[in-house]
Amino acid sequence: MYGDLGIKLVQHAKRTQNLAHLPPYQAELVRAVTREVRDLNKDVDDLLEPFQGSFDPAEDQAVAYTLLVNHISMRRNKRCLLAYHRTRTDKLEELVWNGADVIDLSGQQVRDGGASGSKGVASGDGSTSSLSPQEEDYVRQYGDLLAAYKGQWTDIDLTGSLEPPRDLFIDVRVLKDAGEIQTEYGAITLTKNSQFYVRQGDVERLIAQGYLQKLS
Amino acid sequence: MDIDDILREVDPASHGIPLETRDLQALTRLWVAERSAPELLNWPADGLFERVNSKIKSQIEKIEDMTGDMDPKTNFALIVIQTELERYKFLVRSYLRTRIAKIDKHTLHYLSTEELRQRLSPTELAYATRHQALLHNHYLSSFLSSFPQRLQNLNDTAGNVSMIDSPDLDTAVFVRLLREKDVFGRGTDSDTILPAANGDVLIMRWSSAKALVEDGDAELV
Which residues of B touch A33 (CB under 8 A)? Predict the structure, then answer.
């Protein structure tokens, strides 16, 4: 039936909105929906062909309705595809803002795959990524764009925390070894399970990346 | 902050509000307004952000100068300045991020007419244009290129459905009146005209409040 595949894409998109990670790209579905559009378009062309451009909807209502249904189905499929891709790019943009990069994303998927028992897949390179090649390109380019925009505001650090700053210094606990960092007050070596009282601005990035935990 | 600053404060000749304070107030106002308004507001044209930026730079330099000093008094001042700087940076960051979020959401809408384009700063305009191009390319390479030619547009308005999404201008906002005025508000059932005094806080549709805010009769809260 027309549009059945389109609604599947929309359902995928809806589900994606509530997930923390990005589910695999539905390349098969996208291709199928695109094919449906092409077939429908071909039908439209075939239907219109005998009329040689002098088609009068009032005279031949059956054909007119078929055309209308085909046309609306095509538009609907297009909307479904756009919605699906937009949801995913929004998600990707969010990840870019949070400082993830494409390699990280693929890596994360490999780990997820390993955790869910499909260890065999994790050995492949790139095939485990849940992003389509086009999406990887997009993330890379968007990253560049964001970096360019951020470059205008070097002192602000646009990707910093959006929580209003309360204290200059905070207590943090180290969750993962992060090596040595340089601060204005000298170097600190961050070893696992140790606790520090540091300037928030210095460690924001590490908190976002999950190396440190903020203690309230 | 040194002795000159303190002297200047007690000096009656410069008793007006200093430019820095006014800038901070302006920035805070802009930030509050931008966060509550459903659509993108105008980018401040009077060079406010150039001033803010140079202030932030000079504060960073000052902090760097002071860091070497181990005197407890400077240390205390340092903490105060750093805290203030973090707050200032937060304001700017949050303001810019709010705008970017709005632009991302309705990119084509803000790029569609010259009047709307005017609201963006040059860097934001560059960002929006480039972002839209990226998105379009992504759609094209993912599926759109195999579509029939006449279905490839992203800004169709055929069939009474515009593909360009625009912000909902009828969302409710809170405004505080800055002078006495009869306020006209559009309602669901009927429209009303309400006499309001300076300082009154009203909730109304943004489409009705917009003119008041732009004329300076009210501010968003």
Answer: 143
